[in-house]
């Protein structure tokens, strides 16, 4: 599964090729694209190698990674399903970085926040969880195609854009 994306956000243009890894689902690729657009102004990188200097010594690869001007991890972004065990390690090892999770629904985001409490994850309040408002992820998923054109704005945790002729104007819910 591969998506070729032309993205024009806030007067900047980028081309992106999203390729599914192993048994990666369309849902997860769709969440990665949403996260890429949501954090577009921070120049997110997708499919970062474990050999990248910013994640040296990590046993995990992020879905997306944003760097500081000194090439250090500014934001580690996970999309979809992620274990609290992994998030616990990320929170401990990346104390100066934002840990961000993007979920397809508010329910999934709330379940993750509850799992943090249940598993007594230290500093879990540092984890930022963004969720599509109810019903919007299904529309986002339907827009996915071999070729994707996105034009618009992404600011303050929301979208105001057109993606493959579909209008998306909403703010992600922060849980």
Please give a handful of descriptors for the protein shown:
175 residues; alpha/beta; 5-stranded mixed β-sheet; 4 helices; globular
Describe this structure in words.
25% of the residues lie in helices and 36% in strands. It is α/β, with parallel strands linked by helices and 175 residues long. A hairpin with a 5-residue loop joins β4 and β5 (73-79).
Strand composition percent: 35-45%
- Based on CA atoms alone, the radius of gyration comes out at 16 Å
Instruction: Return the average pLDDT rounded to an integer.
Output: 93
Number of strands: 11
Instruction: Characterize the main sheet.
Output: 6 strands, mixed
Task: Give the distance, in angstroms, between the N- and C-terminal Cα atoms.
Answer: 30 Å
Helix content: 25-40%
Specify the overall morphology.
Answer: globular
- Low-confidence segments, given as residue ranges, are none
Order of helices and strands: EEHEEEHEHEHEEEE
* Content-based structural category: alpha/beta
In DSSP terms, counting alpha (H) and pi (I) runs of 4 or more, how many helices?
A: 4
The largest sheet has its strands arranged as 3-4-5-6-7-11
